[in-house]
Each structure stands twice: as structure tokens, then as C-alpha cells.
Queue: 4 jobs
Job 1
Amino acid sequence: MTTTGSLAPDADADADAAGPSAAARPALPAPYLRWLAGAQLGALGDAALAFALGWAAAAHGGAAAGLVLTVITVARTVLVLVGGAVADRLGARRVMLAGDAVMLAATLALAAAAGLRGSPLGLLLLAALVIGVVDAFYLPASGSMPRLLVDGGELPRALALRQAGGQLAALLGAPLGGALVAAGGLPAAALVDAASFAVLLLVLLLLPVSDPRRAPAAGSGTGKPAGNSTDEPARLLREAAAGVRLATGDRLLRSALLLAGAAAGAVLPVVSLLGPLLARAAGWGAGAAGLVAGAQGAGVLVVAVLLARRGAGAGRPPRGAGTGAAAGLCAAAAGIALLAAAPVPAAAVIGGLLTGAGSGLFVGRLGPLVLGAAPDTHLSRVQALLTLVQSAALVLSTGALGLLADTAGPRVPIALCALAAGAAGVLALASPVLRRA
């Protein structure tokens, strides 16, 4: 799943923005930029491989293609809380190094196996399982890295730049994957992804992450040394549960996580699932569905770039982050409503653009809010919980919305998504906790 009038700074900030000091805003730290460049290269390779896996699985039928995607999602969802606990205990960089090493070996093995045997369903399911398991440990660690490499005042700008890069990788990944599949099939896409993991491994090895803010026994909560006892799995589960208790016991984190889940369930299925169904039902064709999806991606990208350029100002924490996230969700709801009522493809494209812009604002403001509110000892566990909430909401809503679209047509579930997103945005605007964030 995850600006601006509500985020207006005070008078001093306005004067700064208008004067020469605006141009003197410090650049983001070089280690962060190096890591971000490597991470986005990896994201591009992952997107290309995801397209290639989906294409290969589609040759076995729709049910097989859905099963491959389900294996990735289920493995990630089941293990992500444990992954967050491991990253908090061992450190984000160590977990990411291990994950990149495993994926480098796995993608090389996938390329070799696909070159020798083609793409049988068993091989695709095994690749999906490895990807899902590694994601469960990698995503919480990766999500905590900006907090470890960037000062708090520049965190919104750093996360917006990451969001822009991720969106660009998503937009370019499918065409790249298609070109690689056309040129060399699944082995070519796997080899390109392996090369991206090799580059990211090198970047991480050279990255100076001392992480002085992490407690020596982050999140153990027991005071016991982390030895090699037979109780280790149980201890990891207790640490994961401690992260859940912390997040659900903190009013700001609890409200932000609930809002993230609502947004994921109401917004994410619209373009990926309901938009194509609407284009088919209305007789617009695949081209129109692609334009709607592209407009949504462009809206996210433009807002992310604007947020990255604007930032929060040197040394200033972002103001109105909760209000900005709620306003973004309301804007996304308006775009979804326009899509539900669109009589022609042009109106649907405008709805997709507005949906993307609202989503970009929502993620650009809620991300720094969640990451900034997490204690230093629980960074990865809070990111894991954020991933879990969004994944669970997406899985539940996608199935229900698909069934509703089969019985009532796609416009009804799209309208319900607009209502749900709008209601969540209005409730967030009315929440004192989020308004003060």
C-alpha cells in the first residue's frame, strides 16, 4: 500500500523559504544517497523479475499465476513480525546483507534452472517462497534504514525521495521485464536481478552504519543474553509480540497503523484489480486500463518529487503530518469516486491521476510519522507491523472486492472503496492524536 496546504509552516518558515536560506538547505547525507541508489536499482531488478515470474506462471493458467503471487504474500505476512524482531536484534544492515546474499544465490540458481528446465510450476512456486521469506526479514530492516542514516528534520524529504525512486522503479520494471523476457526469457530477468543484488551487496558492505542509537539488546525486554539456547525461537516470538504491544499501546502509532490499513484496503485494489475490470466491462480495452494505471503512478511520482524538493526545512520536524496524510487520503477518495462514475476513459485517467496524487501525499506524510514515532530499539518491528497491517488489509479486501465485482459489476466496489477511503480520511482529520502529530 503507503500536501500541502494543511502543512503550511509558520511565519519564520515562510520567510526562510522565500529567502536565500531556502537554497542553503543541507543535502541529504551521502551514505543515505548511496544506499538509496543501490536500493532503487535493486527495486528495478525485483520489478523486472516479478513481471517475468508472473508471465511464466500465466502460461500454467490463471489459478497457477494467482498461486505464485499468493505464496509470496502469505510467506511475507506470516514471518514479517519475526523478521522485524531479528532486524532489531542483529541490526538492519546485517539482515539486509544476509537477505541480498540469499537472493543473489537464489536468482542465479533460478536463472540456471530455468535455462536448463524451462519454467515448471514447481520451480516458480519455490522461487516465490524464497522471495516471500526473504521479504519478511528484509522489508522491516530496509524500512528502518532512513532513520539510521538521516537526521530527524530531513526524514520526510529522505522518505519522499525514496518513494519517488520506488515509484519510478515500479513504472519502469514491467517494461524492462517484458524486454528481458522477449530477449532471453525468465533466465535473462533472473540474471539482471542477480546483478542488482550484487551491486546492492557492495553498497551495503561499504556503508558506514554505526547505529549508535540502537540499544545493545534491542527489544529483548527480558534482560537475558541472546545466547544459542533452545529457547531462541520462543524469545524471538516474545520480542515480536513486544513490538506489537508497544505499537498498539501508543496512541499515535496505533492511529497511524489503523489509518495505513484502511488506506491499503481501500485504495490499493482500485488500480490493480478494479480498474482493469472496469475497463473490460465498459469495453475500453487494455490500453485504457494501462493509461489509468500509468496516471496513478504518475500522480504518486509527481507528489513524491515535490515533497522531496520541499522537505521540512533544516532541523525542523514536519508539521501537520497527520493532517496531511488524512487530506491525501481524502483526495485519493475523490479520485476513486471519479473513476467509479467515469463515463469515458479520459475521465477515468483523471481519476487515476488524482488517486495517485492523493496516495503519494498520504504515504509521504504518514511514513515519516510512523518512522519518527517508533523508539530506536523497535524501528524494524514497527516497520514489520506496518507491512503486516497493509498486507492483511489488502489480502482481505482484494478477495471481497473481486467477488463483489463479479456479482454487481466493478463500479459498485469502486464506489465502496471511495466511501471507505473518504470515511477513513475524515475520521483521521477529526482525530486529535493525528491532528497534533
Note: Residues 155-205 form the longest helix (51 residues).
Job 2
Amino acid sequence: MVEMKHYLMNVDEVADRLNVKRSGAYKIIRELNQVMEGRGCKVIPGKVSSEILEEVYFVGNVKEEGDSDDRKRR
């Protein structure tokens, strides 16, 4: 498995990684920023942690408050 460095991704990087349009990437960034705030992290509008993005979209081990164990994948 390739080790990925964790950093803040911008909208273009999120759009490329998830193969979505920029407008969709902005929505995803806003949602993931809420996850980060829930963890007590500070956020920068328009940026998201690559670690959070990978967990939510590719690993699937991030649970938000109120989620059940059988939550639907995106």
C-alpha cells in the first residue's frame, strides 16, 4: 500500500480525486469541514484534510454523530 502524506486539499484536487465537478467538490468540502469541526479541528473554507477525505470516501471508518453501524456509503 502506498503511504499518502496528509495535507489540505483544494477544490480542484478534491474534484480530480473523486472525479466530480467543482460545484460538487465544494459541497463535499463543506460536508467534510463539518466532520473536521466535529473532531475539534480548525478548518479553512475551501480546503479539506486529505486524511478525512480518504477515510470518508475510500476507507469508510469515519462515523458522524448519530450514524448507525449500517450507514449507507456515498
Note: Residues 69-74 have pLDDT under 50 and may be disordered.
Job 3
Amino acid sequence: MSVLPRPNGRAGGNAGGDARAGARRPSTPRTIAFDLLTSVLDRQQPLDEAFERHPGVARLDGRDRAFARHLSATTLRRLGQIDAMIDHALARPLPARAALVRHILRLGVCQLVFLATPAHAAVDSSVDLCRHRGHLAHAPFVNAVLRRLAGEAAALAAGQDAARLNTPTWLWQSWSAAYGEEHCRAIASAHLQEAPLDLTPRCNADASLLARLGATRLPTGTLRSVAHGPIPELPGFAEGAWWVQDAAAAIPATFLGAVQGQSIADLCAAPGGKTAQLAQAGARVIAVDRSPARLARLNDNLRRLGLAAESVCADVATWQPEAPVAGILLDVPCSATGTIRRHPDIAWLKSAAEVASLASIQERLLRHALTFLQSGGRLVYCVCSLQPEEGPGVVNAVLASCPDIEREPIDAGDVRGLTELLTADGDLRVLPCHLAELGGMDGFYAARLRLRPSLALP
């Protein structure tokens, strides 16, 4: 295989040049997928954010939008495997200056191997992408690499350790240390599959709604649907029969117990799934979030569902209620490594250093929230992270220095008998491989804390 050509004394072009080249032509699903991959891997922008902000997305019809999103997400989900195949096909490594050409190859390999695109279509569309994004001189190189892989990729993929290749080393080491090698591998394997659509019903969902959604009821009570298409067009959406919420994310709000008539603060509340759960249970909910846009989305969801809560746009790190509250649900900002099934970009955006920084913020938020809890009140701390530093690490640090606070263990009855979701300390620890036979769940951690009666924090 020849080395990468260097047209006009340069290789790979630049992001600005690519944007200008793309602006001269209408966006296609593949050019948008290329732009999304560039945004995530080169500019460290979350995939969903890049997708929402791309000006070409709105010009595509629903099917093409879905394909652009699916192609970019699958490329990120299988990035380790794809890069190994590309490297196998090259006589020497691609230089760093060829990053944009590598993105084109990545999208081509993804189509060849993981989207079952006919070889001629995957190759031709990748060559065309070179033209659209200002890399015409590299089209013969892209053509040669993909044509070679078209005949070898299936065999190469069959021999790969997919779970290990698609998991960054720092995550693999962290999960192996925390959960053991077997569970680490099971977690990584679960991430290779797209997450299903989970719904929390507004009331007891009847058989008719389940049939229309093609849904089954999980042991946790969540509805798991096989329905496809835009969420607002699914049965029951307009009448507020349900809201989208992963099965694991729906568990922690129940740990506050009977909340009817009680004042409950839902901190870092948007997009509002847990707020809706608490409001539906009869709580007087104060939903606090610092993002006006996310809070507006929360309010829109509550209106659709016919539920009510007081919403407050404020920084949870400094906000104080007018009076102490009976319960607090604190879902802190985190690395979100438990949601890689839904957001495969997270595996390539986060780092161990960021986890350490987030853990410090989380501990500060937890300590602040405890200052406005009523005597005897409960606080549920939760994160959609698999990293122990962000879960038990934070909780244990607070417990060690706050004698007025005690852990209130979660028991089998709190998780409908699913004792595999509980730790030895009595915390919730959901892994993506739990309920694997039913499609798995997001990774989640939660601990229930209590302010000892008749005591108040200074």
C-alpha cells in the first residue's frame, strides 16, 4: 500500500478549508457524518451537541437525518476495531496531518463492516466524500484502502477482540479494578449494542398502550419499546402517557420512599425524568437546574405530562431553599460513562483527569445539599457513571467527615428483588450488563443518606 499522497506540498487540508468546500455543495448524510466525527474527535464536542448545531441536519429528510446520526454513532462505537482494520491495510501508519483522511476511511470501513453497505456503495461514497470535503487528491488512496478491506474486513472483524478494542485503556483498567475482569468485559460487550427505548408510564400502562408501542414491562416497571421513528410521533406521546427514561435512571427517585405532600428538592433536575416521577408520586417538587434551555425542556415535558413542579434556574452549588426540605434527589454532573451505550462518543471524550475533577465538584455539591435537609430527612445521591471515584468515593468521603449523616442501606424490596443491583454497603450499582437478556440498562450508582433525627448541620 502506498503512503498518503501530499498534494501541493500539503496533506490532509484543514478544517477551515473543509468547511468552505462543504459550503459550496449541499450537505449529504455522509458529509454530515464526517463533520460530526470531526467535531467529536478533533474538537472534543459531544455528538448530540454537534448534531443539533450542524446547519445541514435540518435540510435532510427524517430518513437521511437518522442515517447520518447512525453512521457517526456506529463509527464511534466501533472506533477501535475500525482503526485496527485501517492500520492493517497500510504499509506504514498514517501521519498525524492526515487525520481528516482517516475520518473518511473510518466512515467507509464502518459502512463496509458494521452497516452492511454494499462494497461498491461504501467505496464510491467515500471517494465522493473526498471531493465534498476538499480531499480530491487523496481519493485514489481512499479507494485503494477500502477496496482492499472490502475483501478482508469480515474475516478481520471476526478475529478481533471487539470489547477490548473499542474500550479506551484507562476505562478498561478502571472497570477491571472496580468490578473484576469478567464484569469489565461484560460491560464493554454491552456497549457494542445500541440502547433500547425505555419509557416511564404516566400511570399504569394498559395492554393497549403496550401493544401500540410494541413494549414489554421490565422487572423494574419500565416499559421497553421496539417502536421506531421520532419520539413525538410515537403512540401516547401527545397525550402525555409516558416519558423517555432509561430503566436504571428511573430507580433512584423511588428510594426517597413515600413523598406525597412532602417538599422535595430535585437538584440538577433537567431534563426532568426524576422530577416527573416525584411529581407523579405527589411530592411538592422544587426542580433546580442552572441551564435555562434545559429547564425550559423540563417545563415543556411537565406540561405535556400534566404534572406540576416549581422550577428554579440557579446554580446548585450556591442555591438555598426558603426552608429546609424533607428530601433531596441529587443527580450530580458526572463523566456519564454509564451511558456509553447511548452516547458512544463519551468513551473518546472523557479522561481519568476529568473524572478526578468531577469527583471534587460532586463532593462539594453533596456537602452543600446536605445543609438544607430537614432533621431525619433523606438525600439520594446518584450518578450515571461507572467510575468508583464518582460514586462510593464521594459518598464515603462525606460520611467519613460528617457524623450527623448516615447511610441508609437500600434493600431488596427497594429494587423489586433485583439484589444483583446492590453493593455490600447497601448502595445501588447498576452495570450495563445487568438484565442483559432483556437488553441491559445504563450504568448507574445511587446511595441513600439520612440526617440523623433532631440534628442539623451547621
Note: The two ends are 70 Å apart (CA to CA).
Job 4
Amino acid sequence: MQSVGPYRFTHMLGICPVGKAWAAIDGQGRFVTVAVLDAAAANTPGWRESFAGIANSMSQMPDGLTFSYADFAAAEPWVAYPAEVGPGAEKLFQALGQECQPVPNEEDGKPSPISGLPQQVSGSPVSGTPQQVSGPPVSGAPQPTSGAGAPWAMQTTALPTVPSVEGWAHPPVAQPAPAVPPISTPSDPFDTSGETRITPVSRPSRNRTWLWVGAVVLAAVLAGGAGLLGGGALGGETPSDPSTSASPPLYEATQLSLNKAKFDAELAPIAEPWLPELGGCALDTEVGGPELPSGEKRHVFCRYLSLSVHFALYESPDKKDAARTHRQQMGVVNRALAPGLREAAKATGGASGAPGSYVEYAGNGHDGRPVCGVWWDRDDSATAVYFETPCAAGIAGNWDALRDVWKRTS
């Protein structure tokens, strides 16, 4: 009889393109369902990470599907669900975009029930040692985001495209939804044109002649009063307009000058709305600056209050599209980490008026705290900016705070 960890398989529930769903029993006689990822799929880049990431994400959702034990490092990774939660194994494969075909009983040809009599199952046992799973979602080997090390810098674990394996028909990347939806076509995710507006109240018409006479009388009174009170105290001079004479304080002016020097002609358009607010900007070519991520030609890291701000110039539009897609996938897989996260959409920059793509995403920081981020790239260049902050300490879980920053700096 096959087994994994403390569970002894009783019979197979279903066969999926990338694995199998089993009914099993533990040492105390409690029934479970176990999802086992085939070794061939586990050895295909992306599948092991997606299997682990989605199992953890589903367990953290409200009324989520909580598993008992799992071993994501086994040659054939597996997850065990108590029978009380229903067909947990099948639901996990469905979240991966895989439909399991039920296995009929040999006796009557009907699908096997979860709690039926134990049946002998042929085949080699599945290896692996169980582990109690707790804490943040398991998402593969973390890779820190480039930049000057914020303690909460987000882990941007790659969710690679899964290559085709002969005999399998599966999505390019497994997600809680069957696939990452394309960025929607509305011109602005924050458009309020459909909202009800207040109709201006028409004012009653007035006699223009009396208005003219009243204006003349008022001017005469003011002229006489000025002579009585001041006798020409203004000296005939016109006060200067503060809006035209004011200049930024010396420190802010110095920061602005330093910031401008960090951005060349290609990065300047997307960085320009940020320049008066940024501090501590560093180029990838500077000592102590950020590392240059794969696919980028230039990277500038800056600070704005609690935000970690990244400006990137990509080697090609395709490289930029791939980076955007990666963060869109993070928004789908990690939605439970940051309630209120919106779907990606085409948008118009609030400051530039330029068309582009807007993406909200989330992930776990190096210190385990959820991090919220916004990506923005313009259609007219191979550049992008993305900014991140701890979801709780940075914005108190309020996505509107990040959206406000985007409106003022896009």
C-alpha cells in the first residue's frame, strides 16, 4: 500500500494531467485527501513553485482551504487536506487549471468515494517526509528586488513560464485563476465619468444697468476711502505676485538638482513628476547602488517617505512586457495578502496624460511582512517605475494611498 508521511493511501480519487488525487487515512483513522504532483511536472520549471504558492495562498484566503500537512520539497510534492473540507486535493488541481478525471471502482464502474473501504493500489510509493506548514506562503527560493536594502524589500520570486511537456495541456503559469487575465482595455481605472454629477443651479437674471451703476458707485467709494485712510501709502507700487517670485527652499532645490543628474534622456520623462519629492537616488553604476536586474539597461533606486521607488530602462519592449506580466502574476497569486488589490488595467497618467499600463501587486518582504506595490509603464517607451511599501506600516492597508501617489506622479 502506498503512503506519504503519516498517510496510507486507500484508493485513487482522480487522475490529473500533472498529478493524482488520493484518498488516504492517518494513524488515528482520520480520512484525508492528498494532492500529489507528478515528478515530471515537479521537475519542469515553474510547476513546483506554483503548486506550493497556490496551496499556501488558498489556505490564507477568508474561508480558505486549509491543509493539514505538506511536503513541497519531495521528489513528488504533496499536500494533505482533512476530509471535512471536502475534495481538497481536486480543488488544488483545479486552482492550477487542471481538471481531474474520477477513477471508477473496478467492481461497479462508479467513481470511488473518499471514505470507502481501503483498496490495494499498485505503483511505486511517493517519497517525502511531512512537515507542519505555517507562516507566510511558500513561493520557492526568494530573490530580492534590486535596490538599496529596505528591511521589507519584496521577494520577487520568479513565476516562470512553464514549457510545454508532451502529453500535457496546461496553462503557461499556474494561478489561483486558470490564467492571468490580460490587462483590461478601459482607458483609466480611476475614471469617474460614469458617476452622478450635481447639476448647476441656474441663477435668476439681473438688470445689467443696475449692476453697472452699482459698480461705478462702489469704485468711487473705494477711491475716496483710500485717500482718507492712506493718502497714497502704497506709493503707487504694485505688489509682486508670490506665485511668480517664490522659489523652493535651498535644501529642496539641491535635492531636485541632484535627482535630475541621475536620469538620462530616456528615463527623464517617466521620472520627471517624481523629481521634487525624491531623495537618496542611486544609479546601478554607482558604488553602493542597486544591482542591474536581468533584462534592464539602467536602474535607479530612490526613496520617497516610506516608499521604495524603482525606475527601470529595459533592453526592449518585450523585456518590459515580461517584467509587467510578472508583477501582474504576483497580483493574482498573492491577492489574499493585500485585500482591496485591483486588477491590472490600461490607464492614462495623472500628471503626464500619457497612456500606459497600471498594475497593483503584493508579496512577502524579507522580514515576512506583506508588501504592497504599484507598477506603471508608458506605452511610448521601454521604461517603467514601480514603488513598494509595507502594506500595514506603510499605508495601513489602504490601497487608495498608493493610488493617490500614482495619480500625482504618472
Note: Residues 106-149, 156-179, 192-213, 215-240 have pLDDT under 50 and may be disordered.
